[in-house]
Design a protein that fits this description.
- The protein is α+β, with helices and mostly antiparallel strands.
- The protein folds into two domains: about 210 residues, no CATH class; about 120 residues, Muramoyl-pentapeptide Carboxypeptidase, domain 2 (2-Layer Sandwich), CATH 3.30.1380.10.
- About 20% of the residues lie in helices and about 20% in strands.
- The protein contains twelve helices and 19 strands.
- The longest helix is centred in the C-terminal third of the chain and has 13 residues.
- It is globular and about 70 Å long.
């Protein structure tokens, strides 16, 4: 990714875009993702307005995706909680971990969730599969106290941070759950501020647990921990002992926790599943160091036509070789004149708040960077683009904010 090279809810249902902050809640309808101030009436039918999320008839929770719905959350009960730690593992936390964490002095609440990331264009979206009735207590006050948001999540829609939703929502009101060719789509039900903002984003979107299962998320691989007035530093080591050595224990504070082990679990389609999950350490320069075991199992080097030796993910390299061999066969070798990187583990723009670059996984490659930088149509030969697409690659030139040097694996095929 290429900053470093840079010079329906098909029945007429409208999304409730709840713009939630410190002040009053406002709603906007329609699927225009970029209009901050576009105002419209709230849903016109009583059940679309959300009610209190309980009962039936006029107060029933809206259900956009009946097959993916869970029981409505009902009224908000219990005190709101601070979200002080994110405990996060590649797989389910150790047996009894939640109970052990609750036994730690100073811990007020532990909320088990499933957590995974997917990409839309070049944007990493970290999504939690939650119980809407209990998870809401860990969110910002305006969000927690707005029943429409949680009714929509229970009804099978996705709630997303406003910035993410405006940027990534499709014209018909959906969010693609990954760039893979076989990724699923979920209708956007609400824009909502979730956890208090931190330097490094932790949760950008939420779905219900049924969607989590459908997306192959690992239920119980993460938990939010609320402490109240207790200092996080006093309980961090105890949380690590309770959750197990394999878990990441992240303080959800204003500064990026560079000393903590981080974890990434990918969700989406078949490519995401093939890439695998891993832990990593962040470096001060914005690069990252993936777990050596994951690197050993997945990162390889292979000699390629035209561009020479390439280091990347084992599932990507054979398809890259097939694409480049076809480029040669078609007499287009001269159209690829520089190779500008594949496996480069780092944050996007070397900024932790922007998430991991595709190049961290070794499934993306940059070509002809000098005249194919961000935001332009680029000079990449369109016959070369077509060949790469046939070999299962998506092209950054098709993104809303174009990146025409960039190709990434989006579909598995036999080389």
């Amino acid at each position: 990714m290429c900053e470093e090279h840079q010079s329906g809810a098909g029945v007429g249902r409208r999304p409730l875009l709840a713009m939630l902050g410190l002040g009053a809640v406002t709603t906007a309808c329609g699927s225009s993702a970029g209009d901050d101030q576009r105002r419209a009436s709230a849903p016109t039918t009583p059940d679309a307005a959300g009610g209190d999320g309980g009962g039936s008839g006029k107060d029933a929770a809206p259900v956009a995706e009946p097959d993916m719905a869970v029981d409505p959350p009902g009224k908000l009960t219990g005190a709101l909680r601070s979200s002080d730690f994110l405990v996060y593992g590649e797989g389910p936390l150790e047996k009894g971990a939640v109970e052990k964490m609750l036994d730690i002095e100073g811990v007020q609440q532990v909320e088990p969730i499933a957590l995974a990331s997917f990409y839309v264009d070049d944007t990493q979206v970290t999504c939690a599969a939650v119980d809407p009735a209990t998870f809401r207590r860990f969110t910002m006050a305006g969000t927690a106290q707005t029943p429409e948001v949680w009714n929509r999540v229970a009804g099978g829609e996705i709630a997303v941070e406003p910035k993410i939703g405006r940027k990534l929502q499709s014209k018909d009101g959906y969010l693609e759950i990954g760039n893979d060719s076989d990724s699923k789509r979920i209708h956007v039900g609400a824009y909502a501020g979730l956890l208090p903002e931190t330097v490094a984003r932790r949760i950008d979107a939420v779905v219900n647990v049924r969607w989590g299962e459908e997306l192959g998320m690992k239920l119980g691989n993460a938990a939010l921990v609320g402490l109240g007035s207790t200092s996080p530093q006093k309980v961090r080591k105890k949380l690590q002992a309770a959750a197990g050595d394999g878990a990441s224990i992240l303080i959800l504070g204003p500064n990026f926790d560079i000393d903590a082990k981080q974890t990434v679990v990918l969700s989406g389609g078949s490519v995401a599943q093939a890439v695998g999950s891993f832990s990593y350490r962040a470096n001060p320069d914005g690069s990252v160091a993936p777990d050596p075991g994951w690197v050993s199992a997945n990162i390889r080097s292979m000699q390629m036509p035209i561009i020479g030796d390439v280091t990347g993910h084992r599932v990507m390299l054979p398809q890259l070789k097939g694409a480049l061999e076809e480029v040669v066969t078609q007499g287009l070798s001269s159209k690829i004149y520089t190779y500008d990187g594949c496996y480069v583990p780092r944050f996007i723009g070397r900024d932790p708040s922007r998430g991991l670059s595709f190049h961290t996984y070794g499934t993306a490659i940059d070509l002809n960077a000098a005249d194919n930088y961000r935001g332009i149509a680029g000079a990449m030969d369109r016959q070369v683009v077509a060949i790469f697409k046939r070999w299962g690659f998506a092209w950054g030139g098709d993104w809303n904010y174009t990146d025409p040097m960039h190709f990434e694996l989006a579909k598995l095929r036999k080389a």
